[in-house]
Amino acid sequence: MKSALIARYLVLTLMAVAVLLPFVSIVLAALHPAGAQISGLRIPETWSWSNFAEAWDKANFSHLVLSSLIIAAGVVPLALVLATLAGYSLATLDPLGGRPISVAFVLGLTLPIELVVVALYFDLNQVGLTNSYTGVILAETALFMPFGVYWMQTHFAAVPRELLEAARVDGARSFAILVRILLPISWPAVTTLGVLYFMWSWNQFLLVIVLMQDPNRRTAPAGLGFFVGQYSTDIPLLSAASLIVIGPIVVLYLLFQRNFVSGLTQGAVKG
């Protein structure tokens, strides 16, 4: 038993090192003087914190980060509300055609964005929604919906039917059951989905590049792509810019770490 526990902790330690080692190497590279040649995990002789300010100015992150936040602030709540309502309906209300609709959402998980992005551009262009935050928000919401509906439907389907029937016997309507009974016990699942939505929206690259022609209204990852093309040989500057882009996701995960882990594992502990 003790050897098995030691082996388990050893495997987890090795996995943690494998995950953290690339991040540590990027941090160390970002702290070297700009233009320095870097090899391996070499600790800088001079700690150059100015790389972050220089990367922020040269990549125009003031506009790009704001644009990313605006898009994520529109996508996350809209997608969460729609996915929750759809998942609740499909899992508990037995709507007409619910089974084919559920299958369609699952099949939507296999649809790559590369397959539809060109057609999506022309469709949104006809209604004047290209080069606008609204168009990107609606497109990303639709793109994320299959996973969100599947996630929430699976969660609500695991709730005991007796709980729902008792609420209906007491006279609660469907919307009241969702708001007053299911959502309070579904906070880990909703929070986890919200973190995933924010991460996917923040990291979205191809869709933003195609739909947003104004460089100042593109997102931080899209701006980083152009920044890499301009400063491909300046590793410290590129590392600093990369850390600026991934920073919000790391902070968000640390803030919601408990709920995120609980939401991912809640289905595995049900008897």
From TrEMBL:
Membrane topology listed for this record: Multi-pass membrane protein
The keyword Acetylation is assigned to this record: no
Superkingdom as given in the UniProt entry: Bacteria
Positions of transmembrane segments: 64-91, 103-122, 134-153, 174-200, 235-256
Primary location class: membrane
Keyword Hydrolase listed: no
One GO BP annotation of this record: transmembrane transport
GO CC, any one term: plasma membrane
Subcellular location: Cell membrane
Residues covered by the ABC transmembrane type-1 domain: 65-256
Keywords of the record: Cell membrane, Membrane, Transmembrane, Transmembrane helix, Transport
Pfam family, one: BPD_transp_1
Protein family according to the UniProt entry: Belongs to the binding-protein-dependent transport system permease family.
Protein's UniProt name: Sugar ABC transporter permease
Organism for this UniProt entry: Virgisporangium aurantiacum
